Amino acid sequence: MKFSVIVPVYNRIDEVRDLLESLLSQTSRNFEAVIVEDGSTQPCRDVCEEYSAKGLDIKYFYKENEGRSIARNYGMERATGDWFIFFDSDCVIPPGYFETLNKELADNRTDCFGGPDAAHDSFTTTQKAINYTMTSFLTTGGIRGGKVSLEKFTPRTFNMGFSREVYDKVGGFREMFSEDIDMSTRIRNAGFRIILITAAPVWHKRRVNWRKFWRQVHVFGMSRITLKLLYPGSLKAVHTLPAVAVIMFLALVALGIIVSPWWLLPLGVYFLALIIMALIKTHSPVIAVKAVPAAFIQLCGYGTGFIQAYFTKIILGRGRDIEQEIEMRRGK
After folding, report:
1. Residue 209: pLDDT band with limits 50, 70, 90
2. Is the pLDDT of residue 199 over 90?
3. 161 and 112 in contact (C-beta within 8 Å)?
4. pLDDT in tens, 109-140
5. DSSP-assigned beta bridge partners for residue 86
6. Which of 31, 100, 234, 248 could make a disulfide contact with 3, Cβ separation 3.0–4.6 Å?
7. How many helices and strands (H and E) does the chain possess?
8. What pLDDT does 47 receive?
9. What integer pLDDT is reported at residue 134 of this predicted model?
10. What is the pTM of this model?
11. Which burial class, exposed, middle or buried, applies to 134 when counting CB atoms under 10 A from its CB (0-12, 13-18, 19+)?
12. pLDDT band at 36 (very low <50, low <70, confident <90, very high)
């Protein structure tokens, strides 16, 4: 079994170096790395050539900037593997990843898989706090934490793979936000089997500052409404929780100011619970404290994005032709 690791890149030289270094350190090397430079002004060709000279099987392509989904499709069209594996450029891969993957796929017949992400010891405390809140039950209901809890497991492109057979039948990624959720839904709807491989995590750097993190989760919230338009039954109660949290937060703050400070108590209890759980999980007081602003940004960013898109696309009816728009952007 041969894997094709497909990574879209846009101005991420240092990240690509870390990723390729981790691929070079794999205990099993039955893969090729397909790096698709999506119109970068700071290309990573020299880094790829450096690691190719060290023995890593790398195919490097440069193309005009069209978006990460089109870049992934470009890579799949040129890949030679039986399976396509997708990492984000800001991922670092544990040394035994492909050894584990070989065993898991041999023992479990499947067509598509996803794995969890985690924070490496070398990451900053801010990155670790963001990673914690992105995988904590208190902030996501556990749907991104490597467990199947409040919804069906949905692989994400920071750690995802599917067979060439899936690609031949389902096609490539659509150029849209949350394209990996869309792809996973199409794979499931086509009758293919999807599993979670908890033993194959990646180390995911995620966003390195609060502003970028806010922008990322705000877009996540908006894209959930796009997915609802594409798949009317896909919106679950768990997806609405950040929007509900925003409304409750504003109501409690207003009541705390106008009526009594006691109305702020639920917020204090929630953030205290978050700190305690983060401290138990990470054993770091600094990360536990930073988990509070990380959770606030995550919930409010996602929640406001969800509310904004719901008002614009559902109530006002704008964007209901999203299916046609996506088809025009090289989807299938």
Report:
1. confident
2. yes
3. yes
4. 899 999 998 888 889 999 999 989 988 888 87
5. 6, 160
6. 31
7. 13, 10
8. 97
9. 87
10. 0.86
11. buried
12. very high
Distance, CA of 101 to CA of 106 (rounded, Å) = 8
Give the Cα separation of 320 and 226 in Å (integer). 9
- Amino acid (one-letter) located at 313: K
137/181 Cα distance (integer angstroms): 20
* Dihedral sign, Cα of residue 23, residue 29, residue 31, residue 34: positive
Structure tokens of 34? Answer: 């397909």
Sheet holding 31-38, edge to edge: 58-63, 31-38, 3-9, 83-86, 160-163, 112-114, 194-196
pLDDT at res. 320 = 52
Q: Where does the pLDDT of residue 318 fall: very low under 50, low under 70, confident under 90, or very high at 90 and above?
A: confident
Instruction: Spell 186-223 as b/e; 16+ CB within 10 A means b.
Output: bbbeeebebbbbeebbbbbbbbeebeebbebbbbbbbb
- Segment (H or E) for 27: none
Contact 255, 170 (CB under 8 A): no
d(C-alpha 218, C-alpha 199), whole Å? 30
